[in-house]
Amino acid sequence: MTDKRDLVILGGGLVGMTLALAAARQGITSHVVDKATPEQLTAEGVDGRASAISTASWNLFCNIGLKDRLDPLGCAIESIAVTDGMKPGRIDFTPKPDEGTLGRMFANRDIRIALFEAARAEPAIAWHSGLEPTARQRGEHGVAVTLGDGQVLEGSLLIGAEGRQSPTRIEAGLNSAKWDYSHRAMVTAISHEKPHQGVAWEIFFPAGPLALLPLRDLPDGRHRSAVVWTFDEKDAKGIIALPDSVFVGEMAARMQGIFGEIALAAPRMSYPLNFHHAGRIVERRLALVGDAAHGMHPIAGQGLNLGLRDVGVLVECLAAGMRLGLDPGDAQVLARYERWRSLDSLAVMATTDAIVRLFGLPGKLSSAARRLGMAAVQRSGWLKKFFMDEARGMSGDLPELLRA
Predict the structure, then answer these.
(1) Closest Cα partner for 143 from 327, 338, 291?
(2) For a tag on the chain, would you pick the N or C end, based on fewer CB atoms within 10 A?
(3) Interatomic CA distance for residues 112 and 364, integer angstroms
(4) Interatomic CA distance for residues 178 and 238, integer angstroms
(5) How far apart are CA 114 and CA 293, in angstroms?
(6) What domain range is 330 assigned to?
(7) pLDDT tens track for 47-75
(8) Helix runs in 80-156, H state only
(9) DSSP 3-state assignment of 267?
């Protein structure tokens, strides 16, 4: 007997598995396919990145039952400091005591483990790991995906959640606007002498920003922060080849002692930075979510949060349509999802791209103009509140799952 489900989700990463769990909470069933196994995805050192989870994304995790698993593992972002090369004129985004934090930092590995543990206990999710699709079919009455072991998975709606190089998006002919920033991000973590006090630092340099993001202290009491250091691609080989001691010294020089003595607390990983935005994110019985639909520079830490907003909106559209008796793959349901997400995702990505280009302009005049603008924002209460609401992900038309 064929196990036909509502959704066939290709990609069981952070966004794909969150979608499966969020859908399950609404009674929507799914097949989830990923070429990697959970053991591979959660092994130590496979993904050393950490993610800033906005208030809205945290609401989503709480609403799908992950609060107890994740709460002890996160570190609150109490404020954000933005500076142009540590020169005068920085912006401090610090909410009032009754406004809550600006988000939470989590190791990606911890989020994956929490998602996988929850998915194992969810009968609405059929999980197919260590397998790749060999064929995808989308017809008038449903979808079918053939796996490498010969299994055929049937559903009503196909979801592309495989990341930036999504073969599902490419096969469907959903073209993207894309460009390469000619930048590379180095990701690691540091331990440091002084406590971070929950402050996330974004230090801009012409060659690229240095982000220092607060993490929970290590078991031995050492203070710790995640690092995302962006540099020009032409310098990549040289920087990657630096011995750890020299790399730490270069970083310390740019930090100007804000954390005191520092040391590496995790392996260094690097990856190239680019932009892509699919003009359309739906096709017949197909929807894209997360990086399959849009990939951006990590400068504002919004990439994963944008994908989680896709999840909240898509699940709300699916649940509302199914209550009316519509099929999950109905064109009306998918059109509503695309309309709802198009303006928000484009606005966030355009803003992020503009920040990258603005702070990448070299020269003293450009720096002076930036710092003048930053000083104006620092003095403006409503502008700071606007940017803090954006960082929390609490602006605009939010789906129910992203509300408190």
Answers:
(1) 327
(2) N
(3) 44
(4) 27
(5) 24
(6) 5-178+274-402
(7) 778 999 999 999 999 999 999 999 999 99
(8) 108-120
(9) coil
Q: Are 58 and 103 contacting, i.e. CB atoms less than 8 angstroms apart?
A: yes
For 19-48, the pLDDT digits (tens) are 999 999 999 999 999 998 888 888 776 677
Residue 206 burial (CB < 10 Å; 0-12/13-18/19+)?
middle
The residue type of 265 is: A
Tokens of 310: 């896709």
Residue recorded with tokens 């198009």: 342
CATH assignment at residue 83: 3.50.50.60
| Residue carrying structure tokens 């911890």 | 110
Neighbouring-strand partners of residue 143: 138, 155
Token pair listed for 81: 């400091």
Residue 224 lies in a domain: no
Query: What is the predicted pLDDT for the residue at 45?
Result: 67
Confidence band (pLDDT; 50, 70, 90) for 131?
very high
Amino acid at 8: V
Q: What is the pLDDT of residues 278-307, one digit of tens each?
A: 989 999 999 999 999 998 877 767 889 999
Q: Are 292 and 162 in contact (CB under 8 A)?
A: yes
Compute CA distances 3 → 125, 160, 217, whole Å: 11, 20, 46
Q: What is the mean pLDDT of the chain?
A: 91
Whether 339 is covered by a domain: the verdict is yes
Residue with tokens 């990439």: 303
Inside any domain, residue 195: no
pLDDT in tens, 358-381: 777 777 777 777 777 777 777 777
- Number of structural domains the chain divides into: 1
For 330, phi and psi rounded to 5 degrees? -60, 140
Kindly tell me if the per-residue pLDDT of 6 is higher than 60. yes
DSSP-assigned letter for residue 390 = H
- What's the pLDDT at 59? 96
